[in-house]
């Protein structure tokens, strides 16, 4: 086990104890980001080499097989706030681990699915959150590659947030004058002029051709709004 010094870096917020199981590309990136945000992370992987590499980075890191119930209990998994099962390719290990974590009574079990059928099984087991990193990133990049938007994030099944340019027709108008919410059913939440940083949008914010905007709304009107650019 390796302990990193000074893992809680931010004051005045709840530092969670999170177990990340499976430290492949997705799991290790997630675990690093959690540590970076000030959380306590217990990383677990069967591969000794991976465990050694991450020892200086994570709060604790252990080489263990999480399909074994006793191992999970010995590692104190029942006490974590959240656990993420980031095992993808080994379906059996993903399912067994998720099921054992749920049996232990962990309140927030997140599981990564490599396919729609894998995701369905994890949902049926009772995983509280199922994520599809490859599927979701594929969709996001598709919108960027096609040039429809500069970025595209699905917030919920039918609610999306995009980054795009100010359509020419709104050049020089304030948001109040542009009436984007009333006429297009989407909301401009932030704007970025030239090299400046993004700032929150207000009714008096003036839009300029070439400025970037972040727009949120239901998928259908947002797709139509993108076509104005
Ligand atoms: P990624 O795309 O994130 O690299 P992946 O979807 O290919 O991962 P896997 O290769 O199945 O997923 O698993 C990721 C990690 O999980 C690997 O480092 C692997 O050693 C680890 N792992 C697999 N089975 C177990 C297990 N039973 N207990 C703990 N760790 C495991």
What does this entry look like structurally?
With 229 residues, the chain is an alpha/beta fold. It has two domains: 4-131, 3-Layer(aba) Sandwich (Rossmann fold); 136-226, Alpha-Beta Plaits (2-Layer Sandwich). Helix content is 34%, strand content 24%. The protein has nine helices and eleven strands. It has helices at 25-36, 48-54, 69-74, 91-103, 116-125, 133-145, 175-178, 180-184, 219-226, and strands spanning 17-21, 40-45, 60-63, 82-85, 108-112, 129-131, 151-156, 159-165, 187-192, 199-200, 212-218. The chain has a six-stranded parallel β-sheet, with helices on both faces. It has a five-stranded antiparallel β-sheet with strand order 7-8-11-9-10. Helix 2 (48-54) links the parallel strand 2 (40-45) and strand 3. Helix 4 packs parallel to helix 5. Residues 1-12 have low confidence and may be disordered.
Sequence of strands across the biggest β-sheet: 3-2-1-4-5-6
Low-confidence stretches: 1-12
Q: Count all strands and give the number.
A: 11
- Please identify the structural class as seen in this structure: alpha/beta
Radius of gyration: 22 Å
Ions, cofactors and other ligands present here are: adenosine-5'-triphosphate
Mean pLDDT: 92
